[in-house]
Design brief:
By secondary structure, the protein is an all-alpha fold. It is about 70% helix and about 0% strand. It starts with a helix and ends with a helix.
């Protein structure tokens, strides 16, 4: 079916979308996303009205885009155009932001970051949204998107939120940082994780401290980091201390 859509003209895909029975429509939308031909994406652009379509169908489209193994710049542009400047249901908006991050990350994995204007536009959209977010839940969604994008230039912003935010934001920011390969876990990142684990600036929840310790132990830990984490474990409850001890043993192996 996807192969057929790849060779179909825009008007035929559009007709198929318009005539599909209601229960089949999500399948056809997913297939059109998977086809990723110029015609199928143009047909989706014409067909999907983010102001009118049911939330379930819009979310199906966004999930299909997010999980696309090798997305194109055109698919990211379609998602950006559909989200841009519109008043959407919160669920659709959140799914769209996370999907945007996923698409950016996969395009960069394909070494298309510098070649696609859509990537730059997508990153700016996420960062602008993060700066303007007022609710904790909103901030977390944008941090999740940055975690999906895995762009080194966003690390300073993630570090700020990791150290300064309330527990949910700190957890989301550290989770995003854990997605980065070791080469991007710099001395600056490690210093911030030490401050969080050893609570140098303020108190942090146990989950945040453990996540910070994991970043230190999973990314070429220094002997001093290992010693300090083990010493600190003596003051933690048994379950937490055992977890850290197992992490250290795994690193040694």
């Amino acid at each position: 079916f996807i192969q057929m859509l790849r060779s179909a003209k825009k008007r035929d895909v559009l007709q198929l979308l318009r005539r599909a029975p209601e229960e089949m429509l999500p399948f056809v939308v997913e297939a059109a996303v998977a086809a990723q031909s110029v015609a199928s994406l143009a047909a989706l652009s014409d067909f999907l009205d983010f102001g009118k379509e049911p939330k379930s169908l819009l979310e199906k489209f966004l999930y299909a885009a997010a999980f696309s193994p090798r997305p194109s710049g055109e698919l990211l542009r379609l998602v950006l155009d559909k989200l841009d400047g519109k008043q959407l249901a919160p669920e659709v908006q959140e799914t769209g932001i996370v999907a945007m991050g996923s698409l950016i990350g996969k395009l960069c994995q394909q070494k298309l970051c510098g070649l696609q204007q859509e990537v730059e536009r997508g990153v700016e959209t996420i960062l602008r949204g993060l700066r303007g977010a007022e609710e904790e839940s909103e901030v977390v969604i944008y941090l999740l998107a940055l975690g999906n994008a895995v762009l080194p230039e966003t690390i300073p912003s993630l570090l700020d939120h990791a150290e300064e935010g309330p527990a949910t934001i700190t957890t989301a920011a550290i989770s995003a940082l854990r997605r980065f390969p070791t080469r991007h876990i710099s001395g600056k990142v490690k210093r911030a994780m030490r401050r969080i684990f050893h609570e140098k600036r303020k108190s942090y929840e146990k989950t945040c401290r453990l996540a910070a310790a994991e970043i230190l132990l999973d990314n070429e830990p220094s002997p001093m980091d290992v010693i300090n984490i083990l010493l600190a474990a003596n003051e933690l409850e048994t379950e937490t201390a055992t977890f850290l001890l197992l992490k250290v043993q795994n690193s040694l192996r």
